[in-house]
Structure formats: C-alpha cells, structure tokens
Amino acid sequence: MKFRDLSAQYQALKPEMDKAMQDVVDSAAFVFGGAVTQLENELAAYTGRRHCLACANGTDALELMFKAYGIAPGDAVFVPDFTFFASAEAVSTIGGTPVFVDVDPESFNLCPKALEAAVLAVQAAGKLRPRAVLAVDLFGRPADYDALEAVCQKYGLTLFEDAAQGFSGVYKGRRAGSFGLAATTSFFPAKPLGCYGDGGAIFTDDSEMDALLRSLAMHGKGDDRYVNVRIGRNSRLDTLQAAVLLVKLRVLEEERQKISQVAAAYSQRLAGLALTPAEGGDYLSAWAQYTLRLKSAAQRDGLAAALKAKDIPSMIYYPLPLRAQQAFADIAHLQVDACPNTAQLCETVLSLPFHPYLSPGQIDEVCTAVTSYLKAEG
Ligand SMILES: *Cc1c(COP(=O)(O)O)cnc(C)c1O
User: Fold this and answer.
1) Which one, of 98, 161, 82, lies nearest residue 327 by Cα?
2) What is the pLDDT of residue 147?
C-alpha cells in the first residue's frame, strides 16, 4: 500500500494526460508555452482572484509574495508553530522574523486568540514590528479566516494565506487561495493539486502586486524582458507541468469529493478509538492528510510500528514544533508565547495512507490494523 498513490491517479487520467504531455513535447515550447497562461487564467477564475502567477514551487511562491509586500529586517510575520518548515523559512529568507503562534488542537490551524496574544507580546517586547500573518490551511482544512481577519484589522496587520495543502478547500463559500492580500500554493506531486515535478502559484486581486511579482519572478524585469530594474530571480512553471495541471484541475472537485468519502469512512470506523479529524461546519476540507491524534507519544509510536509491521505506511506530520527547529535557534529569543497545543500535537499525531483512489478493501485493511492495535493496547 502506498501513502499517497500517484500512479493510481495517473492510470485514471492516462489518455488525457498522455495527450497533454505529448502536445507540449511536439510543440517544443518547453517554457513560456500557452498552457502556462491558460493555467494562470483558469486558476485565477477557479479561486475567484483577479491574478494568478505560476512559479517554480510553493516555497518560491511564499518568498516572492513576502518580497513583493516588502517584508524586511525587523518585521515580525506571525506563522503557525505547527506547519511545514517552508511557511516560516520563506519569512527568514526574505529577511523578516517568523514569530511562532500556537494552533487550535482540533482544526490544526492558527488559533485567533493565541495570535492576538502573540501580537500584543511582540508589541510589548518592542524588538520587532508586527506586520503580517501567514495562515496555513493545514492538512487541507481552511484556517478560520473571519476570526484571523478581525485580529489583523484590529492591529493593522496584513493577512496572507499558504494554501499549499488547502487547494480545493472552501471556507464560507470562498475557495482556498482567495484569502488575504495574496495567497500561495504548491504543486508538489503529493499536494491536493500536484504536478509531475515542482511548481507553485501566487494569487492576488492587487494589480500592482501582481506586476511586481511578475518582475521579481523574471530577474527583476522592467517593461522589457531584458531591461532589469530590480534584483529578482528565475522562478517559472514549465509548460509540461502546466499541461499536467490543466488536466488535473478538471477532476479536482471530483477528487475532493472522493477523498472526503475516504475520510468519512476512516472516521466512521475509528471514532472512539482515537481522536479523528474534526468535520462539519462552514467549510470543506481539501483533505491533504488524514491525521489521528493518539493518547500519548508511546501510543502513537506503537501504532506506527504496528502498521509498519503490516506494510501499511504512516507519517508523522510534523514531529517538531517550528520553534524547536535548530534552524530557528538564533531567533529563539524573539519568540513570545509558549505553544503547548503544538508541542502536544507533535507528540501524538499520525497521518494514515490517504488519497482519492484508495479502495474500500484498502480502507478496511488500514482500519482493521489501527483498530486491532488500539483495542489490544487500550
Ligand atoms: C509543501 C508546502 C510548502 C512548500 O511547497 P514546495 O512546492 O515544496 O516548495 C509550503 N507550505 C506548506 C504548508 C506546504 O505544505
């Protein structure tokens, strides 16, 4: 069994996918091909944003976004303590300082109350200037945008969205990628919308920001491609990846529905044995991961080992709070509040094999293995 079976998806889409890729190879327009612009237009329409810029990966998307906004040394960007490293790394690369904020243990997402406390604490400490908040749609579930937006307005902060895991999710009728001044996503193969290599995108309604992003992603070009007005970088999505994504975009909603059914089947079998992901409310999850919370680190590690013995893969997303990463040791003194929920989650979470093409037999195999371990252990 695979943790996320990308070949099953390819087999399901093979005729359209093969044709789309062959068309790009035949055209020999490997970069700047028509599929890239078409993808940008379709993704902008999909998210309801005015602009979409495709780029090389989700980390570049974050860096370009922070750079275009003007994050600079001395600026605090509030990020969840519980997320993939890149969400905070991108702040540091641009010269800002990530300030780690605790998450809600049920939603796994930035806790609005903890955010407000952290903003006040940074203001009181007086070492950094609070500027922005990066909300992450962790494991596919959209963050609580109404509450986060309210905190941002109260303190004059700018909200951004990292939708790498949330793409195809919906919050109060709005799609992931539509929140904040700008939002990013990643097309890493295992994400809800993934390509066959690396890719990313940035979404915004702000035309000036979009123009600046396009310049920064192409060596700081001016009106002319070979007249450079600032230092940028090379960050582009190639045509093959865009063609792959156009095929996958057509089935994204269908896949979201399929994976929701897998999640529902897991939760029905596992409820009561472990804490299953919260469901229901004013949102639809993109279901990037199906993550259980166990009673203790020992129980979590025992379950992972029991699954492994049966050739069932599982993953710990994420084993360390960001504030505990060695890479952030030099900004430890700039951190404000403790993040007890994150610490607890890192000890107790386990993500199960999960994708839209999981068969009823495979779902049963996973649930039987989890159930038998937890009942015997329990
Ligand atoms: C994957 C991911 C990224 C980075 O995307 P890459 O394309 O791998 O650079 C950023 N943020 C989150 C939350 C992610 O899951």
Assistant:
1) 98
2) 98
- The answer to whether 50 and 204 are in contact (CB under 8 A) is yes
- Asked if pLDDT for residue 378 goes beyond 70, the answer is no
* Cis, peptide link before residue 283, omega less than 30° from 0: no
When pLDDT is averaged across residues 298-314 and rounded to a whole number, the result is: 98
184 lines ligand 1 (CB under 6 A): no
Token pair of 206 as six digits: 């702000």
Structural tokens at position 188: 């890493």
Query: Helix 340-348 crosses helix 297-309 at what angle (to 10 degrees)?
Result: 30
Which pair of tokens denotes residue 36?
A: 């890239």
Closest CA to 52 of 230, 249, 229, 189: 249
Ligand 1 atom at minimum distance from 199 CA: 7
Whether 101 lines ligand 1, by a CB cut-off of 6 Å, is no
What distance in angstroms lies between residue 88's CA and the mean position of ligand 1's atoms? 10
Contacts of 320 (CB under 8 A, 6+ apart): 346
Which amino acid, 71?
Answer: I
* Segment 178-224, tens digit of pLDDT: 999 999 999 999 999 999 999 999 999 999 999 999 999 999 999 99
Q: How many angstroms separate the alpha carbon of residue 163 from the centre of ligand 1?
A: 9
Say if residues 202 and 53 touch (Cβ distance below 8 Å).
yes
Spatial separation of the C-alpha atoms in residues 176 and 168, rounded to whole Å: 6
Top mutation candidate among 66, 81, 87 for ligand 1, by most atoms within 8 Å of CB = 87
Tokens (6 digits) for 90: 């991108």
In this prediction, residues 62-75 reach a mean pLDDT of 98
Answer whether 136 contacts ligand 1 (Cβ < 6 A).
yes
Q: What percent of the chain has pLDDT over 70?
A: 100
Q: Show Cβ contacts of residue 57 under 8 Å, excluding neighbours closer than 6 positions.
A: 186, 187, 188, 198, 199, 200, 235
Q: Is the CB of 185 under 6 A from ligand 1?
A: no
Q: Going by C-beta distance under 8 Å and a sequence separation of 6 or more, which residues neighbour residue 98?
A: 76, 77, 78, 79, 88, 91, 92, 322, 328, 331
